[in-house]
Design brief:
The complex is a heterodimer. Helix content of chain A is 20%, strand content 29%. Chain A is of the alpha/beta class. The chains are: A alpha/beta, B alpha/beta.
């Protein structure tokens, strides 16, 4: 599968990458507890191209910047969507920006989901909660065709925290199989109950040839660790599993040192990394 | 939104040591020679005149010989001076390293270095090499550190380390920076500053719920493993020049040349290879 038309951030001048560009909040929708999806449009110039999993540094004047992944589909050229959870002073200032207000953007940067280098004919996407945001654009691109099977396993705490529900039907029309599990049973929910790793052992009835599958995994570190380990247990090789990393980011292009995890400079060598490469470092506390 | 103009002052580093010069070259690789050259660094760096003084009198903390950075300067300087103090008087044997250095030297009163002078200068530097007894076994240090990321040795270092950040401030290769937004009182105007930073600060690894590296142990480990191991994966060379300043400036006397051999003595983890 070939993704065309996206300009990798690596080719741009540093002054370009360091100067924030003002964008307007065109639209703002709630997306679960403390979480909002903001659609941003540039105040001048073109909306940049991006690849799924890439992030931008979103800034609130006088507060600071945070790295947020672009979650709108690549084909949507009217805006870039960012799903942001209020988890500190910067994200708080971002989600409190009203429609018509200004947020600055630098980017996009980082390594994308390797959609054009898939092994086999099946793509398995495993998302935990807010982890669906960096995966969304990849699911949109993959369910467009070109792959025999696209399977999405999504785990959320409760139904109100399921992101992008309005897109599931479009994904399914494109051939994707979407399975959602929530943590604990609530009235009105007749789907699977339990952790997203439970979906991997076949409790959905989904049959997979694990040796013919590539997996993209995103969610909290603990979820990605146990998901990857479970995938290896059922027969996948670590080199066919991709996860995404998160660290404190400042410059966004490999010069400030902040986003390191072992040898990986997350803004430049990530956020998407191959699990075989990161495995020795990923589960070491506070590395 | 405006970017402040790049500084354009010319600078001369007079009396810089070979290890410090090597450190500048390491920072060149990080800040100038990667996929995103830092224009601010480039503007400062291209004007620099380097007049190195070779070391005839190493300190007890020096281990430049282990890191291949001294006591004599390698190529890359404009001029390198070796001081001779003997019966013939006090003088410098000057090695020209560049055209710029040659032009500068043309304007200075000097004599031709005699064969004896040159031999004396070489002897001074050979003697300096012998005086340096502090060693760091560099071969395999990256693997040793990667295999011992959860070793008890880190805990024993953490019992002493104050996370004062002196080592990062004294180290000539530490390059981390932070972006800080500063507003005026009215909130109308924001300046964004890029400032030198240290991985020992709690804010350095801030994520939503708090610092990712909260413990002293994790911050010391980040500094040492980056400097001696992951730097090699990132930039194809070690980040350490063996200047010994971190040893000199540590208020509790942590000495990485003494700590690193301790890791190899404990059981390692094959998983981190």
């Amino acid at each position: 599968m070939n993704i065309v038309g996206a300009v990798p951030a690596q080719k741009r001048a540093l002054s370009d990458l360091l100067i924030p560009r003002p964008y307007l909040v065109a639209d703002k929708t709630p997306a679960g507890r403390d979480t909002w999806t903001l659609n941003l449009v540039p105040t001048e110039g073109e909306l940049p191209e991006f690849l799924p999993a890439q992030c931008s540094m979103l800034g609130a004047f006088g507060v600071g910047e945070a790295a947020i992944s672009i979650s709108s589909p690549m084909w949507d050229r009217t805006h870039h969507g960012y799903t942001i959870r209020d988890a500190g002073p910067i994200t708080s200032a971002l989600v409190e920006t009203p429609v018509g207000g200004v947020i600055t953007v630098r980017g996009p940067f980082g390594t994308p989901w390797p959609l054009n280098r898939l092994k086999g004919s099946t793509l398995l996407v495993v998302a935990g909660g807010l982890g669906l945001a960096p995966l969304r654009a990849a699911i949109e691109a993959a369910s467009d065709g070109g792959l025999d099977r696209v399977i999405v396993f999504l785990g959320a705490k409760e139904p109100s925290e399921i992101l992008y529900r309005e897109s599931f039907e479009r994904w399914e029309r494109g051939g994707a199989e979407v399975h959602v599990t929530i943590d604990t049973a609530i009235p009105g929910w007749d789907g699977p109950i339990g952790l997203v790793t439970d979906l991997i052992d076949g409790s959905t009835g989904v049959q997979l040839d694990w040796t013919d599958t590539t997996a993209f995994v995103c969610g909290p570190d603990v979820m990605m660790h146990f998901t990857a380990e479970k995938l290896v247990e059922v027969g996948m090789s670590t080199s066919d599993i991709w996860i995404t990393l998160e660290r404190n980011m400042q410059c966004g292009h490999g010069l400030c040192g902040h986003c390191q995890l072992g040898p990986v400079i997350v803004c430049r060598d990530g956020p998407v990394v191959n699990y075989r490469d990161i495995e020795p470092f990923h589960w070491i506390p506070e590395l | 939104i405006r970017m402040a103009p790049a500084e354009s002052t010319s600078r001369a580093f007079l009396g810089i040591r070979p290890c410090e010069m090597a450190a500048v070259f390491k920072q060149d690789r990080v800040l100038r020679d990667g996929p995103h050259p830092d224009p601010g660094y480039d503007a400062l760096r291209s004007s620099v005149l380097m007049i190195v003084v070779n070391c005839s009198d190493p300190a007890a903390t020096c281990f430049c010989t282990s890191m291949g950075t001294g006591p004599a300067a390698g190529p890359g300087h404009d001029l390198a001076l070796t001081e001779l103090v003997d019966d013939a008087g006090v003088r410098f044997v000057v090695e020209v390293g560049s055209e710029r250095g040659a032009e500068l030297l043309a304007a200075v009163e000097k004599g031709q270095a005699t064969a004896t002078d040159i031999a004396s200068a070489e002897a001074v530097l050979a003697e300096a090499e012998v005086v340096i007894t502090r060693q760091l076994e560099v071969e395999g240090v990256r693997d040793v550190l990667y295999e011992h990321l959860e070793s008890d040795v880190w805990d024993s270092i953490a019992e002493r380390c104050l996370t004062c950040a002196n080592c990062t401030m004294a180290c000539p290769t530490c390059f981390c920076t932070d972006l800080e937004d500063v507003t005026d009182l009215k909130g109308d105007h924001t300046d964004r500053w890029r400032v030198w930073d240290s991985c020992f600060s709690l804010e350095y690894s801030h994520l939503g719920p708090g610092p990712h590296r909260a413990s002293t142990k994790s911050r010391y480990r980040q500094w040492l493993v980056h400097k001696l191991a992951s730097w090699i994966d990132q930039f194809d060379e070690s980040g350490c020049v063996g200047c010994g300043r971190c040893i000199t400036w540590c208020p509790v006397g942590i000495d990485l040349t003494a700590e690193i051999p301790r890791f190899a003595e404990t059981a390692g983890s094959e998983a981190t290879r």
